[in-house]
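Lab manual, section 2.4: Encoding a predicted structure.

Procedure: take the sequence of the chain (227 residues), apply the prediction step described in section 2.3, and record the output as structure tokens. A sample record is shown.
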Amino acid sequence: MAMSFFDQFASPSYLGIPLIAIAIALPWVMYPTPSTRWINNRLITIQGWLINRFTNQLMLPLNVGGHKWALLLTSLMIFLITINMLGLLPYTFTPTTQLSLNMGFAVPLWLATVLIGMRNQPTVALGHLLPEGTPIPLIPILIIIETISLFIRPLALGVRLTANLTAGHLLIQLIATAVFVLLPMMPMVAILTATVLLLLTLLEVAVAMIQAYVFVLLLSLYLQENV
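Recorded output:
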């Protein structure tokens, strides 16, 4: 029983073909493509308004040099939200519960922000490793600590997204199993447990959106330090 709870996080395959590729490609075919007409339908209008609002909010603390990342960060945000939300549907697979996938997003983007800082303003980028006014005896220790914290950033990005989604999916499956077990024996307790399950599902919908936003927001903060 303990192993079956974690079977939902195994990457499914059909005829030897991993289906994670389909799960990753699916979000891009779900959104309507904006047309060149002046007047669009309501769905495309709302979609464009939400994307513009999010992009403006995300790019607000960045200078003009960081605005080149607007398309990349906004696309990543929509992609993560869609994958996380689709993973809450029954009999689906959530690719973002795989640490390898999240690290594949986190490491290259984090490394790009570091390289941009080293290329554009190397003095400022290296200055983050040593806070101003540090006592001389503490300089070597602080440089080591700040270097370690710098390299932990992509790991924290990937692990945070993976851990939150994995924990939520496990809780939903545990409570759903409890509802089916309690239903024949104690119907009233099963109804109360089902109510908790419904509230937890609503919470997981919020977590799916918030974790995608936090992932992109932290990347924009790392970018802000280097542009």
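Check your result against the sample. The mean pLDDT is 85.
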